[in-house]
Structures are given as C-alpha cells and as structure tokens.
Amino acid sequence: MRLTKKVMALAMASCMAMSLAGCGGGGSAETTAAPAETTTAAAAEAETTAADAAAEAETTAADAAAAVEGKDPSEIKVGISIYQFADNFMTLYREELQKYLVEECGLKAENISIMDGKNDQGEQMNQIRNFITQGYDVMIINLVQASSEPTVTEECNAAGIPVVYINREPEAEREEAWVTEGIKATYVGADARQSGTYQGEEIVELENKGDADGDGVVRYIMVQGDPENVDAQYRTEKSIEALTAAGVEVEELVKMRGDWDQTKGQEITANALSQHGAKIDVVFCNNDAMALGALQAIEAANRKVNEDIYLVGVDALVEVVEHVMNGKMTGTVFNDYFGQAHTAADKALDFVNGKEVDNVYMVDYVKVTPENAAEILELIK
Ligand code: GAL
Q1: CATH 3.40.50.2300 fits domain 193-334
Q2: Which of 260, 312, 320 to mutate for ligand 1's pocket (most ligand atoms within 8 Å of CB)?
Q3: If we measure between CA atoms, which residue out of 176, 284, 206, 195 comes closest to residue 238?
C-alpha cells in the first residue's frame, strides 16, 4: 500500500509513463482503454442502439479479462541474473524487482531465482544455462557484457524461453533483429543520453554556469563508469555537450574509469585534486556511488562543494539526495528503478501469457536539485 502511494506520487511528480495499476498495469490500462473506445464509437453511430453498444462493450471486456488472466502467477518461474550484487544501484533495483513480483504480481518467492553474475560473463552464462535446463518460463537478465547478448538470446530462443534484458542495453541492430526474426526478447532501461544532458544542465543552470573560479573556462574531471557500457559513454558525452550547447567554454583535465565504484571514485578525484588543485571547477561522476567517493576526496582536500567546486552524479541514492538537500552535492539524476523494475516484471509476465511485447521500453530520468530533493527523498526512502 505504502509503495503504491509512493509510486503514484512519483509518477505524478515526474509525469512518467510507468505502471500505476500494480502488476500488469500497462496491460490492463490498454485493455480498459479498448472498451472505452468501442463505447465512444458506438455512441457516435446514431444507428447503433444503446443495447448493441453495451453488449459489444461487455464482450470486449470479457475477452480482455480472459487475455489478462493467462497462466496462474503462482506457477510462473522467473530466472534473474544481475551483473554484480555489489553494485549499489542494482541492489535497489533487484530488491524492488523481487518485491514487485511477489507482492504485486502474485509469484511465489521460491519460484524466483536471483543470481549474482559476480561481474563475470562466464559465470552468468552458466546461470542462464541452468535456468534453461531447469525449465524456467522467462528470464530477466542484467548482462555482465552487453556484447554477449547474441549468444544469450540464441540459447534462450532455441529453448523457447523469452528474455527481458535490463540496465545494460544491447546493440540497436540487435534490438531490431528481435523484431524481424520474431524473437521473444526485449530491453527495459532508461536513455542514458537524457541522464547526461540533465547532469550538464544542472551545472549550466547555476548562476556562474559552473565556473567556480570565474576565469571564463569550466575545467572539469570526468569519473566514468565501465566505459564498455553505453550508460558511461552517453553520460560522459552528453553532460559536456549540454555545457557547450549553452555556449560554455570547457576544458577536460582528467577522464578515468571508476567502474561505478565508490572507492575508485574517491581515488580518481583525490589524485586529480592533488594534480590540478584549484583549477578544477566541476567533478562529473557517471553515477552516485563514485560521486560519494569524490565527495570524500573533495572534503579531505578542504574544498567546499557549491562554493569553490561543483559535484554531480546519477542514480539518486538516498545519501546523495540528502547531500543535495544540505548543499554537500550540487545535484544528481533519479534513475527510476521502480519504473524499470515494474516494467521489466510486467513484460516478463506478458511474454509468459502470450501477449504482444515491444522490443524496447525506456523509463524517464528525473533531475534532482535542491528545489525538488525533499520530494524525491520522500519517494525513495
Ligand atoms: C547504471 C547506474 C550505475 C550502475 C550501472 C550498472 O545505470 O547508474 O550506478 O548501476 O547502471 O550497469
């Protein structure tokens, strides 16, 4: 109940097109829309009697209800593999996914198997093959390497098991191939370009546009996630593009991979601060875990965020949103794991129930600044 309220508030706050009606919400919203259209059309046709229209609407509703029912949820077996349990953001995602499948979709906890890919593609491949051998109905996979998608899809498809990929997006051509080849696979994620643009805009929207030392150039360091991952690539590119598009002159002082990891974020920022010192105006981090590490380094170097340096991340971890509220961080971007987990679960069950599933679903990001941080905190806490 508490969750449903939160999710509704969240959707209202950000106008996100996410599932509001519990499990399969997207599906039932579509099916309620259909009879309504039928009724409107019937009313418009002056010749059609009210009785005919009502009868027609009833039949449509009955058909829709039958289609929604599908397989008994308590019998559905879902195999899930997360690229790495140690990842902060994917931990929130995984917990929400499990909770939603059990509490909203009616699956039995023992029919949901969630494996730790341990950042090892070989290990994850074994887990997927075990799911196939054990006859799971559907898989939800957060690939260790997006480039392994063709092998995973081929093996699952051969076994007749649909796959919902999450978080690490496969190649666009592959997503097209699923459609043309009639393969039961889909991707549920968020457009990383948007998160990068939002980060850049948070800096551009500052009174001095991020030029902390007022010398006319915004000098920055970029702490990257895993650069093989499109999230890291686009956030790196689009954050800076937002600055240059606004006419801000920029200079990159350091760009290093921190693999989404707090300790690495701290080390990279500490080294950059000792090398470039006061020249650094902005620290861009591809995610919040690394931004928390960067904050430790910034504080250790006696610099003050929002006074002589700016710091932005992505994800909206609780601790980071609190820092945005109390001024210790400039901003972050909410990576909506509620919307993503719910859509992934809904689509997995749609596959099992033989419903139509598109090849890509994107959930919107939301900017988090001091203006709305309290509101976002309310939703995620
Ligand atoms: C990103 C997220 C990161 C990390 C990564 C893993 O979307 O912002 O914190 O979890 O996914 O692929």
Answers
A1: yes
A2: 260
A3: 195
CA of 232 to the centre of ligand 1 (A): 8
239 CA → ligand 1 middle, Å? 16
- pLDDT for 229-267, tens place per residue? 999 999 999 999 999 999 999 999 999 999 999 999 999
pLDDT tens string 170-198: 999 999 999 999 999 999 999 999 999 99
Could you report the per-residue pLDDT of 120-164, keeping only the tens digit for each? 999 999 999 999 999 999 999 999 999 999 999 999 999 999 999
Computed over its alpha carbons, how large is the radius of gyration of the chain?
23
Tokens 């051509």 belong to 173
d(CA 280, CA 252): 9
Q: In 105-164, which residue ranges form alpha helices assigned H by DSSP?
A: 121-133, 149-158
Q: Is the pLDDT of residue 68 over 60?
A: no
Q: What is the per-residue DSSP string for 239-261?
A: HHHHHHHTT--EEEEEEEE-TT-
Query: Which structure tokens are listed for 342?
Result: 């719910």
For 77-190+337-364, CATH number out of 3.40.50.2300, 3.10.180.10, 1.10.4200.10, 3.40.50.80 equals 3.40.50.2300
